[in-house]
Design goal:
heterodimer, A: about 325 residues, MetI-like fold, 2 strands, B: about 425 residues, alpha+beta, D-Maltodextrin-Binding Protein, domain 2, 2 domains, about 10% strand
Chain lengths: ~325, ~425
């Protein structure tokens, strides 16, 4: 979205214009008799799309279908000490969903994720917007260098970032964690009271720079005529920022927040790594962890059935949250 | 955004549906299908996760020797790069897809699970031919009287300690639990700890101690499981550790956390009850430090059942369902697992009978002690009554969670056993098996 906006000619609403025009063109060609050239183009078009379509089908659509099917089945033995020596793939209807949806640890996990998101996402989005505004203003020299520096944490793979931070949080290894008091027998940063904040810190550190880039792209797509006109009319830098720039990046903020909500529900790297240094967390601290460990036989009932049901529930929760956010957002902007 | 998370989520999700197999490739079919031609050699595939590290006799080299001597039975060994849990998942997926190896490494705790899922073959007749070559661990590969393979290594609990530090403190290797507590208290005064309560290892570590105290976690009564995790033997173990945790005379660090290694190198941790296979790497952090060569191995204290110890880990090689040449596979299995000296270099306490040489590395780290003799004694004292249940993999994590609480002081060690008791019953019921009330 931001890409279209930035390459578009510098007038407002240009992206909307662009989006409609190719559609109009295809409509007219559709009505005409297909020329040889057009047919050739159509074939090459499909051929170009083929690799994507195949991969999409293979790694996206099929797994989803397979997961939905699996969620209605369970592998159970037929009683006794070891069963009949073979587990039966049995259709169990909505049993797996009922088990997951009535599981206290699932909702505890969702609760943790929500608490995490309610605090971490606004902090990160505001910080990203602030940094973008700073770089977009004329106050910073060499914005390119700063842009790269802020973005750098994102270049570190999430799991590596989590490992590095887990070292920084352990008093035995960290240069600073030893200075904090221990909380109920746990090291400060790894205690039940602080764990969510510790993980939020990792996430914020990693993704603020990335979200900043989204805002920066949106800011740079604001036509300079607008700000120039405002300046001529006597607007101060503060007024330009609050009255023009921030309202103009509302779309980018919506996108960044939406993707962050979905990303938060799927938190996996951070809790998994932190669990390696804080065993009290258990293997169902967050829903994605719970799904994974159910599949791996580390939580009973285990297997692909219960694990798929948990995954689908997670997707449903993420969907509900995203839709709710979009509705609230559009009501507020009206 | 959060792209890496999304990718991970997608990988995990596709793993969920494809059951790990789709993204991990093909280990080769069970065995050659060219059964019609009697001249063609039989092909056996073998999936293992032995370390194959530096200075060890490589699995491929051992296998090459077999292949040279047995042109009619050609074995192809593949090393699985991942942890036990991932390998189990891979085996299960591949075997179910009729695509599994002929032989696969299984932890003793995983054998009942695989048996109940119908993923292993019953090779009782074949296995019994080789029975006299193995120690009591032979029984660990059997489920309800049906044997699915041969044992490879064992993990009896032993006591590792720093002899020099012990002398400086004026303490000796404790022979009973009371002596252990007294020695721990004495060392703690000097800021030294002769043991560490390791929350992340409790599933095997505490169950092995129950076995050392003469108890078991699981028994059978007729056609039903009898779950007795919180038996009197377990309670004895719980009191032992609770007393020392309360007195702050033991550390409470995770075994696989980085803090454990630091406590070792700092000289704070000067002993611990641990599985015998830890000899292979426990002291690595102390190489080229003043503490190198100061450590020794001894038997664990008497937990109340005499000279007895419990099984903490170890694994065997099982014949997987779909293997077309189980007889030949078992021939190789028996040969491979009796290459005692070679397997010892892999850091294993080998289950086959024999007198393994103590590897040079261990001689250096343990100040010249012939530790293999001591470990063999532990092997001999190993309780063979202890058996696991199908679904044990889900019991461990629950126990670990509570153990972490116990380490912090927000729960008791006894609660670990209560949690494991309930988790075991839940796991059995969820798997559709019968539990005696």
């Amino acid at each position: 979205m931001s890409v279209i906006t930035s390459t578009a000619p510098r007038r407002p609403m240009s992206s909307a214009d662009q989006a409609t025009s190719p559609e109009g063109r295809t409509k007219t060609t559709g009505r005409q008799r297909m020329g040889r050239n057009t047919r050739h183009q159509a074939i090459s078009g499909w051929l170009f799309a083929l690799p994507f379509a195949l991969a999409f089908l293979l790694v996206f659509v099929l797994p989803i279908i397979s997961a939905v099917r699996a969620s209605f089945f369970a592998q159970v033995a037929s009683g006794g000490l070891y069963g009949g020596g073979e587990r039966q793939d049995t259709f169990v209807g909505f049993d797996n969903f009922v088990t997951a949806a009535t599981s206290l640890s699932f909702w505890r996990g969702i609760g943790r994720v929500m608490l995490f998101g309610v605090i971490q996402i606004p902090v990160m989005i505001l910080a990203a917007m602030f940094l973008a505004l700073l770089l977009d203003s004329f106050m910073v020299r060499r914005p390119g260098v700063w842009r790269l520096l802020y973005f750098l944490p994102y270049a570190i793979p999430g799991i590596i970032a989590a490992i590095v931070w887990s070292y920084l949080y352990q008093p035995e290894l960290s240069p600073f964690a030893g200075a904090f008091p221990s909380m109920g027998g746990s090291p400060f940063f790894l205690s039940p009271q602080v764990m969510l904040a510790s993980m939020a810190n990792i996430t914020t550190w990693t993704y603020t720079g990335y979200n900043m880039l989204i805002f920066l792209a949106a800011l740079q797509a604001i036509p300079t005529e607008l700000t120039e006109a405002a300046r001529v009319d006597g607007a101060s830098g503060w007024q330009i920022t609050t009255q023009i720039k921030i309202p103009m990046v509302r779309g980018a903020a919506l996108l960044a927040t939406l993707l962050s909500i979905i990303g938060t529900v799927q938190l996996f790297n951070e809790p998994s790594m932190m669990r390696a240094v804080a065993s009290w967390m258990g293997n169902d601290y967050m829903p994605m962890m719970m799904a994974y460990n159910t599949m791996m036989g580390q939580i009973s009932p285990s297997g692909s059935g219960p694990a798929s049901a948990i995954s689908i529930l997670i997707a449903a929760v993420a969907g509900v949250l995203a839709v709710a956010y979009a509705i609230v957002q559009s009501r507020m902007s009206r | 955004m959060k792209k890496s998370r999304k990718i991970l989520a997608i990988t995990a999700a596709s793993a969920l549906v494809f059951g790990m197999g789709a993204c991990s490739g093909n280990p080769g079919t069970g065995s050659s299908s060219a059964g019609g031609d009697s001249k063609a050699p039989v092909e056996i595939t073998y999936l293992h996760r032995l370390p194959d590290g530096e200075g060890m006799v490589k699995v491929d080299d051992i296998v090459a020797r077999w292949n040279k001597e047995h042109p009619e039975i050609q074995v192809k060994a593949t090393k699985f790069d991942g942890n036990a849990q991932q390998m189990i998942q891979r085996l299960e997926t591949d075997v179910n897809a009729n695509n599994g190896p002929c032989l696969g490494q299984l932890g003793y705790n995983e054998v009942p699970e695989f048996y109940s899922k119908g993923l292993v073959l019953d090779v009782t007749t074949e296995a019994n031919k080789y029975k006299d070559k193995f120690s009591g661990a032979f029984g660990q590969m059997s489920t309800g009287g049906k044997i699915s393979g041969l044992p490879q290594d064992t993990g009896p609990l032993v006591y590792f300690y720093n002899e020099t530090e012990f002398k400086n403190l004026g303490i000796t290797v404790p022979k009973t639990l009371d002596e252990f507590k007294t020695a721990a208290a004495k060392a703690a005064v000097a800021g030294k700890y002769i043991a560490d309560f390791t929350p992340d290892e409790v599933a095997f570590w505490l169950s092995a101690q129950t076995a050392a105290a003469g108890g078991v976690w699981y028994g059978t009564s007729g056609d039903q499981w009898k779950v007795q995790v919180d038996s009197p033997a377990s309670q004895k173990v719980a009191t032992f550790w609770q007393d020392m945790i309360d007195a702050k005379s033991v550390l409470t660090l995770d075994r696989w956390g980085d803090a454990y290694g630091k406590a070792l190198t700092d000289g704070q941790l000067i002993g611990n009850i641990a599985a015998a296979w830890e000899f292979a790497f426990l002291l690595d952090p102390l190489n080229d430090t003043p503490a190198e060569g100061q450590w020794r191995v001894a038997q664990i204290p008497d937990f109340g059942a005499g000279a007895k110890t419990g099984p903490d880990g170890g694994s065997g090689v099982a014949v997987m369902k779909g293997c077309e040449h189980p007889v030949e596979a078992m021939q190789f299995n028996a040969w491979f697992n009796t290459q005692v000296d070679d397997l010892t270099t892999q850091g294993l306490v080998v289950a086959a009978l024999g007198n393994p040489k103590t590897p040079a590395k261990a001689l250096k780290q343990f100040g010249g002690q012939e530790i293999m003799k001591e470990l063999a004694t532990a092997n001999k004292n190993l309780s063979m009554d202890f058996a696991y249940i199908p679904g044990f993999s889900a019991v461990g994590p629950k126990a670990v969670e509570t153990a972490a609480e116990a380490a912090k002081g927000t729960a008791k060690v006894a609660d670990v056993f209560t949690t494991a008791q309930q988790a075991s019953i839940d796991a059995l019921k969820a798997a559709g098996l019968s539990v005696a009330q």
